[in-house]
């Protein structure tokens, strides 16, 4: 759910959007290192099963894999939101080694 942030009143619901992180997680599990800056690892196309407003790219940036997405809000007349996700390894965690994708 996407809401605005009001200081003096209740936050208003602006719509809903969801992301499918499986394509991104598959790229993370590839264990990429030492690839050129700005290299596009994967392109995810918008379709009826996701909220993507345009194609989304998994990009190697600053030694990390990020995915940029423009999402079309649902259950609202109109609206889009731009988000970026990045995987962060946490010390002493299993990470994706045991994840079933």
Automatic annotation (TrEMBL):
GO terms for cellular component: membrane. This is Uncharacterized protein. The lineage of its organism: Eukaryota, Viridiplantae, Streptophyta, Embryophyta, Tracheophyta. It comes from the Eukaryota. Keywords: Calcium, GTPase activation, Lipid-binding, Membrane, Metal-binding. It is found in: Membrane. InterPro entries: CAR1-11. It comes from Pisum sativum. One of its GO terms (molecular function) is metal ion binding.
């Amino acid at each position: 759910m996407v809401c605005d942030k009001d200081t003096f009143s209740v936050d208003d619901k602006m719509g809903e959007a969801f992301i499918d992180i499986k394509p991104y997680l598959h790229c993370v599990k590839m264990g990429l290192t030492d690839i050129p800056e700005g290299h596009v690892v994967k392109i995810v196309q918008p379709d009826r099963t996701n909220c993507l407003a345009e194609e989304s790219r998994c990009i190697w940036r600053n030694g990390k894999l990020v995915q940029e997405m423009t999402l079309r809000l649902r259950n609202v007349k109109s609206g889009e939101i731009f988000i970026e996700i990045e995987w962060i390894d946490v010390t002493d965690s299993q990470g994706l080694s045991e994840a079933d994708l």
